[in-house]
Amino acid sequence: MKAALRIAALTAAAAVSLPGLAQQPNPLDNIPDKMPFDIPYGTPIALDRAEAAIAAAIAEAKKHDWKMNVSVVDSGGNLVAFQRMDGAQLASGKISMHKARAAATFRRETKVFENGIQGGNNYLITLDGVIGSRGGILLMDGGKLVGAIGCSGGTGSQDEVSCKAGAAAVNR
Predict the structure, then answer these.
(1) What is the distance between the alpha carbons of residues 96 and 146, in angstroms, rounded to a whole number?
(2) Secondary structure E strands in the chain
(3) CA dist 14 → 3, 20, 22 (Å)
(4) Which of 28-37, 43-52, 105-114 comes out lowest in average pLDDT?
(5) Domain boundaries in the chain?
(6) Closest Cα partner for 48 from 80, 18, 22?
């Protein structure tokens, strides 16, 4: 009984005296002056531009012998075009669509979610439609969001390189 009381007393003393247990301010309570990611919407991307973005992403992937699935969605996250390279991982088709859709509907690259989750902002995983993996890039026309491209099949960095090549081919 004495030993149990001693352990309880030591545990209580340690809990009260540990530094750093004081309530820390939540960085999410910060109120920014401007709305983040406030990108205006433009006319949804046309099929010919979507196909040009896919062709450029696939050309980049072929240079490195990467097998990719590439999707382009319009500004509302609706699929416009998709292509799976021969031998590309089958599960990555839906992942490429998810990356493109998340980038378009949240108006930011999916790398933002990856960085946020890795930085401890775990609330991000509770948001419908989020994917915490790079490889979803916005497609822009005159500063307006017209769609997004998503690549999947390689590492996140390989996916991102392919997507950036696709976006560069059509962004104006």
Answers:
(1) 17
(2) 69-74, 79-84, 136-141, 144-152
(3) 16, 12, 14
(4) 28-37
(5) 47-170
(6) 80
Q: Give the HSE-up count for residue 52: Cα atoms under 13 Å, Cβ half-sphere.
A: 12
Contact between 150 and 80 under an 8 Å Cβ cutoff? The reply is no
Q: Please state the pTM of the whole predicted model.
A: 0.83
Residues 6+ apart with CB under 8 A from 13: none
Residues 92, 70: Cα–Cα separation, whole Å: 9
| Cβ within 8 Å of residue 165, ≥6 positions away | 56, 57, 59, 60
Report residue 20: phi and psi, to 5°. 85, -5
- Tokens standing for residue 37: 């990611």
Task: Domain 47-170: give its CATH code.
Answer: 3.30.450.150
Rounded distance between C-alpha atoms, residue 50 and residue 139, angstroms? 9
67-123 pLDDT per residue, tens? 999 999 999 999 999 999 999 999 999 999 999 999 999 999 999 999 999 999 999
CB 91 within 8 A of CB 142: no
